[in-house]
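Our consortium's second objective concerns turning raw sequence data into structural hypotheses that experimental partners can test. To show how far this objective has progressed, the report includes one record in full. It was chosen at random from the queue rather than selected for favorable results. The single chain below, 333 residues long, was entered without modification.
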Amino acid sequence: MTSIEMAGNDVVALRSRYLLPVLVLAYGLAAALAAPDIYLEMLADYALQFAVLPPLILLGLLAVAMLRHRHGPLAYLRRTAATRLLPLAGIACLVCVGLAAFTTFKILIPQLVPFWADPHFARIDLLLHGTDPGLLAHALLPDWAGYAIGVLYGPVWFLAWFGTMGAMALHPGDALRRRYFWAMALTILLLGTVLATLLASYGPVFFDDFAETDRFDALLQQIAESPVGAYMAEASGYLLASYGAERPSLGTGISAMPSMHLAIATLHALLLGRLNRWAGLFGWGYVALILVGSVYLGWHYAIDGYVSIAAVSLIWWATGRLERRPAGMSGTY
């Protein structure tokens, strides 16, 4: 190999190593320039929330050890702790920067593009299902299912998201780790910011508030009478109050299309399928539950979830090309 070829390989390796961090930092900078007060507050809030990461990382790491290293899980854990803790800190900072930017842009959506798409998505749902999917879910599911949906859609989803990010930050395989974080970054940027802004919508639970109609009164009544009625009244009220307030709050911003709950769940199902066939089947089962939960709770139209599943599957396929790069091109992220 000539010196010119070696220099070219070094440039490619550096680009592979630092391109994703540069993209995330640029995303954060764009949010900071667009709304500095909101971004800085979100950045501080997320930094405080990351105090819960260590136990979630441990849980995610244990899951990977049992799935991929059943014959030597303890050795895997020791090796990973020795080689990945410092990169983990860097990844945690980038995740914090990226999530703060995501929330900032989500809060800004109605200022950039007024909500316009809900009547169209509601009509598409009717054409696809013959009725509102939320009403169908309430009609088919027993009352006790509401408790399970509330837990699976809320705390379990958050635990799975941050636990998986922590586990993948510690994963020793450069290619799979790089693929996962590229897919996560593109999902948040392209779906959570770009597509969510272009297809600005608020979802069935807010339809009557914004459109000032009784279009979803029947669904809202079903939600109010379900086991999660009190929680939904509190959660939707929190988002609606924050929407009209001058000071943003953590986890706020109203956006229905595409469903980020389905996007993240789909990404994790694809990742689990890459690690283990049975784990992948479990992951897709969870995707199905989140899809049902998204319409049962009224947060989303069914089409929001369908778009997310299709888009994230395409992103996962595209980032799979990173895994097939030569070993010399592997990078930190």
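The partners drew two points from this record. The mean pLDDT is 87. The radius of gyration is 21 Å. Both points have been shared with the crystallography group to help prioritize constructs.
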